[in-house]
Amino acid sequence: MVAQEHFASNILRNLLGSIMRIHTKSSSHLVDDRRLVFATPPSQPHEFRILSAAINVCFGGIGSIYLSSKAPYEGLLEIPKRTKIIGFILSLIPTETTPSDWLIKHLEFRQSLPVSIPIMVGGRLYPAKREAP
To answer: What is the DSSP string of the chain?
Structure first.
């Protein structure tokens, strides 16, 4: 069953990514040449929410750079050196990595970027508390 879920996820991700690439190539709809960068940092394997957000922004007229899941912070730091970006959109959900480990990496990443480049973080960083039955 897990293999089937991974297979279906790969097909859906490739389809959505193709739609975004096709739409981006006809860039006459874009407001300007700046881009928003969408990514999930290391230890973040889930990407459908961030991919959906990238597609919505692209269809709204803002250029999107979508990076696959588990994008290393070091690689993210290279993007502003090579292209004009508006900011970063990161998606985070709970993993085995403790929130304090993530926070340290995130702060190091923030300090390495120019102040003019914002970082927006979404997703469910902490697991929901469950009430006892």
So the answer is: -HHHHHHHHHHHHHHHHHHHHHHHHSGGG-SSS-EEEEE--TT----HHHHHHHHHHHHTT-EEEE--SS--HHHHHHHHHHS-EEEEEEE----SS-HHHHHHHHHHHHHHS-TTS-EEEES--SPPP----
Closest listed residue to residue 20, CA positions, set 2, 36, 44, 6: 36
How do residues 69-86 score in pLDDT, each as one tens digit? 778 888 888 999 888 899
- Whole-structure pTM value: 0.76
Residue 87 has pLDDT above 90, yes or no: yes
**Extents of the domains making up the chain:** 2-122
Question: Domain 2-122 belongs to what topology?
Answer: Rossmann fold (3.40.50)
- For 44-65, what is the mean pLDDT? 81
Give the chain's mean pLDDT. Answer: 77
List strands edge to edge, sheet with 63-66. Answer: 63-66, 35-39, 85-91, 119-122
